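Box 3.1. Reading complex inputs
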Amino acid sequence: MDLFNHLALGFGVAFTLKNIGLCFVGCMVGTLVGVLPGVGPIATIAMLLPITFGLEPVGALIMLAGIYYGAQYGGSTTAILVNIPGEATAVVTTLDGHQMAKQGRAGIALGIAAIGSFFAGCVATIFIAALGQPLTKLAQLFGPAEYFSLMVMGLVFSTVLARGSIFKAILMVLLGLLLATVGTDLETGQERMTMGIQSLSDGIDFTPLAMGIFGFAEIVRNLENPEARDVVRGKIGRLLPGWADIKQSIAPVLRGTFIGGILGILPGNGAVLGPFASYTVEKKLAKDPSRFGKGAIEGVAGPESANNAGAQTAFIPLLTLGIPPNAVMALMVGAMTIHGIIPGPQVMTKNPDLFWGMIASMWIGNLMLVIINLPMVGMWVKLLKVPYRLMFPAIGIFCCIGIYSINNSAEDVMFAAFFGLCGYVLLKFGFEPAPMLLGFVLGKLMEEKLRQALILSRGSFTTFIERPVSAGLLIVAAAMLCLALLPTFSKRREEVFTE
Amino acid sequence: MSDTGNTTNAPGGTSDNTYNVPQDLCGGIFLFLIAAFFAWKAWPLPLGSLRAMGPGMLPMSIAAMVGIGGLVLALNGLRKGSLLQEKWHLRGPFFVLGGIVLFGLLIRTAGLAVAGPVSMVFASLATNEFRFKESVIFAVCMTAACIVLFKYLLGLPIPIFQFM
């Protein structure tokens, strides 16, 4: 049994006192920052990245995984307690989770979210371990044309999954690709559009861009909708759900895990869809759908499991193909590169202890969440009562220190401020920033693969259609796009996102 | 392109028809200007051929796509609506982003001990709930905590005090 040998190796690496300690600290600070309203996983990871610099690679990745899960769970906590989703995937949790909190069942909502997430995490860990190796083998069959088509498919998914107009989302993807072309040309070494700025010769840095657009622009936007916060005043209540609650949640958790896990693998931020899909399914299957939106426990258990399963299986495209499926994973690429690891199929063969250690640490991270978060809910509630007028300068200073520390560069801080302004303007024009970020993330790799593919085919675009795998991927992408543009479907899509 | 004039995509989820259409006009022009800027900067780069692409090929072609898309969006917006109706605020962006710029300017020249409080107090001015005393005390305490955490506990090379 290869799978068990590998997992045993992984747990051997991860189960040292030091690594468990790192995972614990990572989960805790991740949750601490993730709980702050308007700070999603991207901002959290970017902010906390510098604290892992002093560690050796395995420890650093374990801690980062902890931070990631902490940030995810922190987002759900704010969704339940304050009715503000920390990030897109927690939107659904606000519907029933916050209602439960209003009815004095906040503790149970948080508890079932943690337990569901833990279960989903366990399944997803095994899933990754089982799928990792075959997919890596598959990746070795991929030529440049296949890689390019796969990324095209990912970008198409991201536009279909973005809120609002698809046309605008496509424009955002293109804008992201355009930004990615800044910097030294890969083949000729010529500087492109750097405007003579030294630090741009390596291209625009991802962290300032992401922090500007998701961190600072978000702060500015929050200031415009003052005090929409609605911190639960009543008691948190019992944390551990009773038998009746558990019985009600088992099936939704199983279904949510399945749905979220499958969608999470899709390139192009499929994980976002998981909670929505799970919620819709639960509502359809429920005997009494009218309970949904009024504090139905299934509406928390299913989407939260889907959320966590997707958050974890999103690692699969990154670890096996080296393609980050969303912005958070792109940050993970950055983090891994800092520690000297280039994500992709070679990680598994070259650093097996790192690969399996990280997978094992995902499971440990999930366990930590249950252990540390439930007793600490009271502290998060206190933190959430700090008024925003004090909170946002503090968030700002943490972001600044984080950005500065990554390259010890004051220029990066200025870039982040500039991108914050751009992000604010784009938000005001009704452009969704997520597709742009994904376009930017994939841009460099796409250009490289496109050029390689065209060199191999001597400048003929038919190579993308003649190769069966590549053609298949493009057909899926085209079909998705057509489907999304059909009037009936686009109406459904709108409903899903405005619900 | 039937999707272009779609509504219900204002971030707040507003589905008011007159709300979003003018957004498209200005948003399209904005994108067009960005694309034009990139095209201007990429102009001197050799295009090469499809068989052996030059450095300018992709920037140029993507900029063209963004520019044309922006124009389509703008024209569609023009066809349907009139003036920009989304509320723009100046105070929030100015002080929040200004605070960050201040941090960037001061971190190397004066150090975190100065950059922290200055940028935090400046950013605090973004709300009309600003209270001077509270903001200053909070900023100083937060900066002290950050110095202890990042400089001494984590050992990051951040300048604390720097005198020119």
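In summary: The mean pLDDT of chain A is 82.
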